[in-house]
TrEMBL record:
PROSITE patterns on file: SIS
InterPro entries: GlmS/AgaS_SIS, GlmS/FrlB_SIS, SIS_dom, SIS_dom_sf
Domain SIS: residue ranges: 130-269, 301-436
Pfam families, A to Z: SIS
Organism for this UniProt entry: Corymbia citriodora subsp. variegata
Top-level taxon of origin: Eukaryota
Protein name: SIS domain-containing protein
């Protein structure tokens, strides 16, 4: 493949050959055709654009005395069935329904349930040589863009509680614009589904220049982030063809939760909590399967929102990242304005937008922030906002009958605009309601 491309370039058709072979290699990767693919050739075609160096950068063939060059071949371990849509309408829908299997694959061989004599633990082979260094870090910095950033934000509270280490978040482009401080004592975790995100790669180069320990979390073996970081973890979510990330997002959260378990594994005081988290992770694929049974109900709910111009998402605590990611998906897929808002900031601007024409999604799961979210629901309802409340199983009645401040009016079943819907989010079962 490489030699043929070289001969074509000598005939004065360099650009056409470059475009043609880039497309062919990309198609092999996308289609998952079994066989060998020279990774160096991919780098050669991507990076070099100069007159006599576009073929010389990775393989030295453009010389006065050409000689044979041997390069390692990378076998694509992918079945053709992985890229077929099957009975689904599009790839994104297919990948949403693949989440139970992708989560199981992500955890396979890494979560150890233990037995009567063995403790429950996590084994991350890609980090074992650097785990002690990470535990001694002064700060852990998560760096990513878009969905990857939201996944890191969702995992941050778990890492903070289990490790006791300061955890900060950085959007890759913003870190570069600010030239934010990065130290030798820091551990920088770079999250990217493709492993080739341009801003994240530039931030990685910046962190390496500042001698920080760099950890990669990616879904692509042999990607730039996987090669350039000191250590890392592959999420093993499988090929993701849809533009909007779905199964990779949930797998990223699980991998970072396992990272938190591994870093905090030397703390005896957190042993019971770690084992409880491991048990929940084992049960997570079944919870997702229950949620995926609501496909038709979600379509019915979407019909109520299809004509809207804007949608607000309120979350708090662990659910703030979920609100941001939902908002991002609405923008990417529905091409509709949406904003994920931290519920604690509702009074500082967002409340002024609420009226009887604005649909609002509020996440109120049974956690440490539940009572605060009830207060948020009361205030939004007082402004006559059209609410879709997502709460834990058993809390729907309590939420719907909650009185709002200054009035004895209650929310009752007769005021619901759509039927009760069930949804599972991690370890909780939600009920969705449209409150008018």
């Amino acid at each position: 493949m490489v030699v043929h491309c070289f001969l074509v370039s000598k005939n004065g058709q360099k650009n056409q050959a470059k475009d043609h072979y880039f497309m062919m290699i990309s198609t092999l990767h996308r289609m998952g055709i079994p066989g060998n693919c020279c990774y160096q050739a991919m780098q050669m075609l991507w990076l070099s654009t100069q007159e006599k160096f576009w073929l010389l950068r990775m393989v030295k063939l453009f010389t006065r005395r050409p000689a044979s060059v041997q390069r390692a071949l990378s076998v694509l371990e992918m079945e053709v069935e992985q890229i077929h849509k099957g009975n689904h309408e599009h790839y994104m829908q297919k990948e949403i329904h693949e989440q139970p299997e992708s989560l199981t694959t992500t955890m396979r061989g890494r979560l150890i349930r233990g037995g009567t004599c063995k403790a429950k633990t996590v084994l991350l082979g890609g980090l074992k040589d650097h785990l002690k260094t990470i535990r001694r870090s002064w700060r852990i910095v998560f760096i990513g863009c878009g969905t990857s950033y939201n996944a890191a934000l969702a995992a941050r509270p778990i890492l903070e509680k289990l490790s006791g280490i300061l955890v900060t978040m950085e959007i890759a482009s913003d870190l570069l614009d600010r030239q934010g401080p990065m130290y030798r004592e820091d551990t920088a975790v770079f999250v990217s589904q493709s492993g080739e995100t341009a801003d994240t790669l530039h931030a990685l180069e910046y962190a390496l220049q500042n001698a920080a320990l760099c950890v990669g979390i990616t879904n692509t073996v042999g990607s730039a982030i996987a090669r350039k970081t000191h250590c890392g973890v592959h999420i093993n979510a499988g090929a993701e063809i849809g533009v909007a990330s779905t199964k990779a997002y949930t797998s990223q959260i699980v991998v970072m939760a396992m990272l938190a378990l591994a870093i905090g594994g030397d703390a005896i005081s957190n042993q019971a909590r770690r084992e409880a988290i491991i048990d929940c992770l084992f049960d997570l694929p079944n919870k997702v399967r229950d949620m995926l049974k609501l496909d038709q109900e979600m379509k019915d709910l979407a019909k109520l929102l299809i004509a809207e111009q804007s949608l607000l998402m309120f979350g708090r605590g662990y659910n703030y990242a979920t609100a941001l990611e939902r908002s991002l998906k609405v923008k990417e897929v529905a091409l509709m304005h949406s904003e994920g808002i931290l519920a604690g900031e509702m009074k500082h601007g967002p409340l002024a937008l609420v009226d009887e024409s604005l649909p609002i999604v509020v996440i109120a799961t049974r956690d440490a922030c539940f009572s605060k979210q009830q207060s948020v629901i009361q205030q939004l309802h007082a402004r006559k906002g059209r609410l879709i409340v997502m709460c834990s199983s058993g809390d729907a009645t309590a939420v719907s009958r909650q009185k709002y401040s200054g009035s004895a009016k209650t929310w009752h079943k007769g005021s619901l605009k759509c039927q009760k819907l069930q949804k599972v989010h991690l370890s909780a079962t939600f009920q969705k309601k449209w409150i008018t």
